[in-house]
Design brief:
With 239 residues, the protein is α/β, with parallel strands linked by helices. It has one domain: Rossmann fold. Helices cover 35% and strands 15% of the residues. The chain is built from nine helices and eight strands. The strands form two sheets. Strands 2-1-3-4-7-8 form a six-stranded parallel β-sheet, with helices on both faces. α1 links the parallel β1 and β2. This is AB hydrolase-1 domain-containing protein.
């Protein structure tokens, strides 16, 4: 199976380095993506918007043959949902890593402080305590050292979706910061935070208790959770 790994804000393809080997060892073709404007700290970011990041994911899907599993961390969840909207017939499963689908007209996070054309990684006190669980001082220093400013448009632009067939793509939510029991409560109560997820026909939850960056805090466990979802997908498609 082709597995496409889409990073969240401030990260490039190398952020998946702790996860890729286990997926590849299981026989899958793994494609970790560096999104436009995230090539380096010095890369130009002016004029890059959410649609450009979605288009990068779709281009990668179009260059592959057969079914594709999309994995999106954090803001990457918005991108893989939009890619499933653009290519619903090609996507075998979407896997949301401490994230979820972003609905029509919503932005990823328009409140993040921007500096010109970019959004730098905020200070740690700008995050909730749950986000930073297991992210010790060494990991925090490593994450900040590798962080690349995000193009402002990606954070602020509205999402645009077109094809309701996206709701037929099976989804796995790997719950890290919040337990799946809380997400299920939100679904049952019609909480707006999960309104788009509630429209997906087939959703499964996997709990991986840690902070917002499991690819750094629990890479082996994250790889195992992704593999299990991919393997279930393969079985379901051949049943």
């Amino acid at each position: 199976m082709d597995i496409v790994l889409v990073p969240g804000f401030w990260l490039d393809a190398s952020s998946w380095d702790g996860v890729v080997p286990a997926l590849a060892a299981a026989g899958h073709r793994v494609h970790a993506l560096t999104l436009p404007g995230l090539e380096s700290v010095d890369a130009p970011r002016a004029g890059i918007g959410l649609a450009d990041h979605v288009a990068a994911v779709v281009r990668l899907v179009d260059g592959l043959e057969g079914p594709v599993v999309l994995v999106g961390h954090s803001a990457g969840g918005a991108l893989i949902h939009a890619a499933a909207d653009a290519r619903p017939e090609r996507i075998a499963r979407t896997i949301y890593v401490d994230s979820g689908p972003l609905g029509e007209g919503e932005s990823i996070n328009a409140d993040l402080p921007a500096e010109g054309d970019e959004v730098p990684l905020p200070p740690w006190d700008g995050f909730e305590e749950a986000d930073l669980r297991d992210l010790d001082e060494e990991l925090r220093e490593a994450l900040r050292a590798r962080a690349i400013p995000e193009p402002r448009g990606v954070a602020q632009d509205p999402q645009h979706l077109h094809d309701v067939r996206r709701y037929a793509v099976p989804a796995t939510v790997i719950a890290c910061t919040y337990p799946s029991s809380l997400l299920q409560e939100w679904l049952d109560s019609g909480h707006p935070y999960v309104a788009e997820l509630a429209r997906v026909h087939d959703v499964e939850f996997v709990d991986l208790p840690t902070g917002h960056w499991p690819q750094f805090t629990k890479p082996a466990e994250l790889a195992a959770a992704i593999l299990a979802a991919v393997e279930r997908t393969a079985v379901e498609r051949t049943a």
